[in-house]
């Protein structure tokens, strides 16, 4: 399905990037990996698996990686749907399919780990997600159940309207803000979250959450 492009932002993900790409290739051969100046073999492994790799010379952060991926995906006129996917193996292929199917009735789909029954979410992550949702609502005026989800799907026309300036983790909240600013229709789809010791080591923590809050505040004031 060449109309679908999957963007995978990655920083030092050589342990999981190969398996993530293998799953993504079940959906489309348009796999875009943005290697955010990794110090390991992330980019080489992604290229070996058949992904188109864009490498940053310096680490820009999640927001910078997503912006690079969005530009690359939209350069191809045949791309009609763009999906973002975490590189740590947290998502299932069948959830990506249901995200794409849900685009038939809306412009943007956000995968929600909190709406999925029987998801065993660690307490620290659960508390952080609820706090992040409140922060997102405070700054952007739109409340959703999983504002920090890395699994998202966009129609091309919707993505072309989204303008991002964030470089780091605060980009997840900014995307929600752009949905609100552009009056885009959106839907949340319950997704499974696969938590491992590895994926938990790659995610948010208290101090990173504090940094994200202040960066979001600065973005809103500038």
Describe this structure in words.
There is one protein chain. By secondary structure, the chain is of the alpha/beta class. It has one domain: Spore Coat Polysaccharide Biosynthesis Protein SpsA, Chain A. 42% of the residues lie in helices and 15% in strands.
What structural class should be given to the helix and strand makeup? Answer: alpha/beta
Assign the CATH architecture. Answer: Alpha-Beta Complex
Number of DSSP strands?
7
CATH superfamily: Spore Coat Polysaccharide Biosynthesis Protein SpsA, Chain A
- What is the highest CATH level, the class? Alpha Beta
Shape: globular
What's the layout of helices and strands?
Blueprint: E1 4-10, H1 17-24, E2 31-35, H2 42-48, E3 52-55, H3 62-75, E4 81-84, H4 93-102, E5 108-112, H5 123-140, E6 152-155, H6 156-159, H7 171-181, E7 186-190, H8 197-202, H9 206-221
Parallel strand pairs: 1-2, 1-4, 2-3, 5-7
Antiparallel strand pairs: 4-6, 5-6
Question: Summed up, what is this model?
Answer:
Helix content is 42%, strand content 15%. By secondary structure, it is α/β, with parallel strands linked by helices.
Keywords:
Spore Coat Polysaccharide Biosynthesis Protein SpsA, Chain A, alpha/beta, single chain
